[in-house]
Write a structure and sequence with these properties.
alpha/beta; nine-stranded mixed sheet; globular
Length: 144
Amino acid sequence: MLKNKVFLTQTDTTIGFISQNAEKLTAIKQRPPHKYYIKAVNSLQTLKIFTRIPSLHKKRLRRAKKTTFILPDGHSYRVIRDKHHLLLLNRLKWAYTTSANLSDHPYDETFAKEAVDIIISPLKQKQQASNIHKLGKYTIKRIR
């Protein structure tokens, strides 16, 4: 069953952990349990299941690439367009995503490969992290 597995894969931005089980990700990364994870979704249709996008921002979200949006409810989402990453996400529909490292530590390939259930190759070197925008009902603020 894929829902309880943790994957190590090349995401659209970096090498990352992917899972639908936030508790397992929290244990692996050793981070505080109250922090939210980015929820990667395979399409805008899937995103509509989880939240409503403020009308002012719908066009921006449809056209965004490698961009994470923090919505007014405090949860963050990224619609994935990368073909390699979508191979997994199309099976899961959505998953929590995070970088493949211990919290506040650099990437360590040995740690990452030992911590997961399934490794999906190829794993490339890090690319630039996603942009992050916080959306309000009428405002937008660039976080990263």
